[in-house]
Specification:
The structure is a single chain. The chain is mostly helical and 152 residues long. The protein has two domains: 71 residues, no CATH class; 79 residues, no CATH class.
């Protein structure tokens, strides 16, 4: 909830409110990870917070990588990760790019075509080409389901 409030403050230009919420979240994220370092969703939130601060560097990408390492096969986290990670796939190291693209493919394969359609539809042309290559690896029925959803 606080992430959404911080995002709203950022969009509204309420810098002081954004900073207050961001500091609060940063403190709680660090405290949580110190006690429970296998919290994949918390690693994802830490990455998202860095992105909101404009810090899209190796350290930020390592936070995203930790989210993949601690929970590679949980769809509820994967759907959220996909939304956050796909826009940055072109600047990722190859191993992390492979994680993002592989998870996208797996989510579509597992029946989450509707959820995968949104980041696909909003992706740049070059990112969309990478995602399309992953869709083309799926069986024809899964491909059809995905393309049908993207046309809606």
């Amino acid at each position: 909830m606080e992430m959404r409030l911080a995002q709203a403050a950022l969009r509204a230009g309420a810098v002081a409110e954004f900073e207050q919420r961001a500091q609060s979240m940063e403190f709680r994220l660090k405290r949580t990870l110190a006690c429970e370092p296998r919290q994949s969703f918390v690693w994802l939130l830490a990455f998202s917070l860095d992105v909101m601060h404009g810090r899209l560097n190796e350290q930020a990408l390592n936070l995203l990588a930790m989210s993949y390492q601690t929970s590679p096969n949980e769809a509820w986290i994967g759907i959220r990760r996909m939304m956050v990670a796909i826009p940055f796939v072109l600047i990722m190291p190859e191993h992390l790019k492979e994680e993002v693209l592989g998870e996208f493919q797996q989510l579509v394969q597992d029946g989450f075509a509707r959820e995968a359609a949104l980041p696909y539809s909003s992706a740049s042309t070059s990112v969309r080409a990478l995602l399309q290559a992953r869709i083309e690896r799926l069986d024809p029925g899964q491909q059809k389901q995905f393309w049908d959803v993207t046309r809606q």
